[in-house]
Amino acid sequence: MKYLFRVPTVLALLLTALTAQAHDIEISDAWIRAAPPNAPALGAFMQIENSTDADRYVVTARTSLDVDRVELHRTMMQDGIMQMVPHDKIPLTAGTRTMLKPGSWHVMLIGPKTVPTEGETVTLTLVFDDGSEQTIDALVRKGKKMKHGMQGHGSKHDCKPMHDQAQVTGHERQQNCGHGTKAN
Ligand SMILES: [Cu+2]
Fold it and tell me: What is the Å distance from ligand 1's center to 105 Cα?
C-alpha cells in the first residue's frame, strides 16, 4: 500500500519540476524604440520574469539585425547626471520581474547598418548565465506615452546626457527625457 501511495507523489513532483522548468525565465513585451534612419544605436526593451528561486543573469544578447555590436546597458544617475553604463550582465532577481525599459536596463544595438522602421520586428536572442538562450521578436515602435502627472517632474538637467539620444532630433530627445525621469 505504501508503495502505491508514493507513485502519485513522485509523479506530482516530476510534473511540478517539468512545469517549473518550462517557465523558468519568461520574456514578454519585447520592443525596440523607433529611431531616425541615421540613429547610431537602438534601445531594446522587454520584461523578463524569473520564476525560479535563484538569481539569474542575462550575460549577452544577439540580434538578427546587422549591427556593430550588442551591449547590456543601464541608464542611471552618475555624478549627478543621467548616463548609460555598459554592464557585463543584467541581474534577474529570483522570483521577480525585471523591467528593461527606457531610463533603466536595456539591450543596446550599436551601429545598425539599417535602422528598422516602425512596425517591423527584429529578432533578439538573450543568453543566460546557465548557457541557455531564448529568442524573441521585438516590435519596432514609438516609446510609450508618459504617464499622467509625470510631465511636470522632468527638468532640463535630466535631459542633458541621455546616452544614445545625443544625435537624435530635439523632439525625440524630449520624449526620451520624460522616460528617463519616469524610471528614476
Ligand atoms: Cu544604452
Answer: 8
Distance 14 CA to ligand 1 centre (A): 41
Cα 108 to ligand 1 centroid, rounded to whole Å: 5
Cα 159 to Cα 180: distance, rounded to the nearest angstrom: 8
Distance 56 CA to ligand 1 centre (A): 21
CA atoms within 13 A on the CB side of 144: 16
Q: What is the DSSP letter of 165?
A: G
Query: Domain residue spans in the chain?
Result: 24-179
C-alpha 20 – ligand 1 centre gap (Å): 32
- From ligand 1's centre to the CA of 176, what distance in Å? 12
Enter the C-alpha cell of residue 155.
527638468
Report the distance separating Cα 129 and Cα 143, nearest Å.
Answer: 29
Helical residues (DSSP H) of 36-183, grouped into ranges: 156-159, 170-183
Per-residue pLDDT tens digits for 35-72: 999 999 999 999 999 999 999 999 999 999 999 999 99
Lowest model confidence (mean pLDDT) among 66-80, 116-130, 143-157, 158-172: 158-172
- Superfamily name with CATH number, domain 24-179: PCu(A)C copper chaperone (2.60.40.1890)
88-138, pLDDT tens digit by residue? 999 999 999 999 999 999 999 999 999 999 999 999 999 999 999 999 999
